[in-house]
# Entry
Amino acid sequence: MAAYSDAPSKVAASSCFHCGNQFSYQPIVSTLFKDKVFCCTGCKSVYELLEEKGLCQYYDLNNNQGQSFSEMRSDLRFGFLDEPAIAKSLLSFDSAEQAVLSFHLPQMHCSACIYLLENFHRLVEGVLAARVDFPRRQLRLDFDPRILSVRKIVETLTAIGYEPQLNMAVNQKKAVDKESRHMLYRIGIAGFCFGNLMLLGFPEYLAEDGLNSPMIERAISILNVLLIVPVVTYVSKDYYISALAGLKQKILNIDVPISLGILALFFQSLYETLSATGSGYYDSLGGLLFFLMLGKYLQRKTFNRLSFEHDYRSFFPLASIKIVNGKEESINITQLVPGDYVLVRNEEIVPADAVLVSDKTLMDYSFVTGESHPVEKFRGDILFAGGKVIGGAVEAEVLKPASQSYLTQLWNDEAFKKLVDQPYQNITDRISKVFTPLVLALAIGGFAFWSISSLPLAIRVLVSVLIIACPCALALSAPFTYSTMMHRLGLQHLYLKNPDVIDRLTRIDTVVLDKTGTLTQTDLQTIDSSKLFLSDEDKELVKSACRNSTHPLSKLLYQYLPGNGSKKVDLFDEIKGRGILAIIDGQEVTIGSRTFVMEGLPQSGNPGLTAVYIAINNEVRGYVSFTNAWRSGLEEAASLLAARYRVVILSGDNDSEAPRLRQMFGTNTVMYFNQSPSDKLQKIQELQAQGRRVLMVGDGLNDAGALKKAEVGMAVAEDSSQFSPASDAILEGAKVPFLPVLLQYATNSRKILRNNLMMSLGYNAVGLSFALSGSLSPLVSAIMMPLSTITVVSLAVGQAHYRASRLDASMLKRKK
Amino acid sequence: MEIIAFLMGVSLLVAGFFLYAFIKSVKSGQYEDDYTPSVRMLFEDQAEETNP
# Structure
């Protein structure tokens, strides 16, 4: 580390031409282009590469947008891609001259990224074409496998700042989204039929005494029937299927009255045409289906670039290094068997439960268990899959195949599988449970009443009631309101899996929070030195001692203490798992755990704290404690949440922070510490058994079970491109303190829906009075039905935007 | 009045053509990514570029 030892000389802050980062050390100047300065050689080489290939338009597209160069820790990282079996598993098409492969590049963020990546074939020889799908953050590359290897592609992408995500899940080939294509076909066909039916309806409505031309009248009726057939068959198919499925389970869902309405309209129109008694309701029916299809399409909307279905496979790497007869070999993780020796390097994830063979290592389990600090492991200790190795490379012997590790077991759990097909009843279903029987009763009642005097009139009433009561307004207000709200929440960095999640959010009454990574920021440590009593000179001693240590806490302490830490260390000893002992200027400095420093001395201090104790010449000088920093603004959020919901805290960490949490959340909040992943799942189940509807907010793999089990699982991610466990919603870490306001968006949606339902019930009441009196004409229906649809849709969207803007404003105020 | 019959035929043909075009565009995957093309069209074409 040459750059580390000769301290960079301070100069005025400049900003890197490539990445735009501000830095305050001697800039690196390009030898070819003297007027440009860079923060690192990486940025410089990217610039020079782009300049050479004439791709500098990149810099004009956005100001200073370059990806800051991620220093390649080692090219070795991608060594596993040389293994033909692994490289092949990434390809979606493969032949002798051409191969196709797709990567997910979460770093893509602006139009310049698209420009650069789509010109990838000019940067690298052998690439035939490059195509970006920005909403999904996908890059598709066609390349010539004779010239270019997969490894080379990955290395080049990484070098220019876009490291592809390579994990176990990339092996799953994605199918084309057939369902959403069919949806589009349906919208297209419904729109086509609707438009033409309306045109054909015009002469009918305009000419008072018919068209005076039997030939044209007949032509119009034939066309009407021809155009309506695809609408009532292909387009409406799903309604019949769902209605029948509901009836089979003895549930009257919303699709029952819709299907009845469609069929009533169709057969009534057909009857009128065949008997030449009227012109039918063709245009109303076409319009109805067209709007219903639009609503369904909106309901399916989601954030394409995010995946809400991650399981452990997306977290584990694709390959791992196996040691066979002293030689390193890349192997697919799924092929690891017990007894294999694996090599895990710094910052890499342990692929399967294994026993440590090397002397010692530090394991970061923060994502797996919620423990906030790395723990030391020694030879013979078990390393659980999912932990991250910190420090040097270590060897370990695999105990269980990757799919059966402690962590992945959660996903194989019986309870977990059952969760998948829990049908969810949204608000529309709940209302239709009351609404549908009522409509059927009215229809039959009307029929019975009129059949006393005239059977044809009675049939007419029956059909009219079914037509008018067709709950299209009901079916439309929820999708339009929810999808608008979902879009607005997306702007606030809360991403929902689908619009139905809002409905579930309106119904929760309990909020369960994880601590590490959710309420705290894992990447930021607060250091409390109020219990440490050192003179400036002593601090210098301690800093010098820490400089030699690789333990993360000593590194933090080194950064925290003032001074240079440049004293000569005469003797240095690091005792594993305990601390360090150093002799500097004839003074004995001991730094480390409580038991280590206070050996043979009276014990004091709180054993639950993550703290480093310091003694000089066997005299204890106090300790520094480390805590993860709470997210800013958490206090206000905590009191708001505790006031509105029942709050439960489930932490995998120890209880050292309990008093602070108690102070923020108040005395009614229940807290559990040292919770294992299955404990968390169980706690959620217990709450649900008490009839509570739970929102779980958590970030780590240890929350995965709880996230899935809860009514709404909300995963917290520092930025949305990061891995997050399967969930219904993804919330950006910085927005956690705004959770109470974000939940208000959902409760407001409910108010909007209520307004809309009142209105559509009003419409229905007017319409039903026409229908029950037997005087519903095609003209009235042709006006009433589209009018009610359009009012409902525009009111839903308008109100949602209005209420969301007010909440946006209230959040801005809180920020100030 | 016969002109109406003619017009109906023409309008159906025109609308039918649009429906056909729409279905074609869905089939070719144009609706899968509705953002990137809007950016892509703004890039300057470079003269020395030869299309693969």
Chain A has a mean pLDDT of 79.
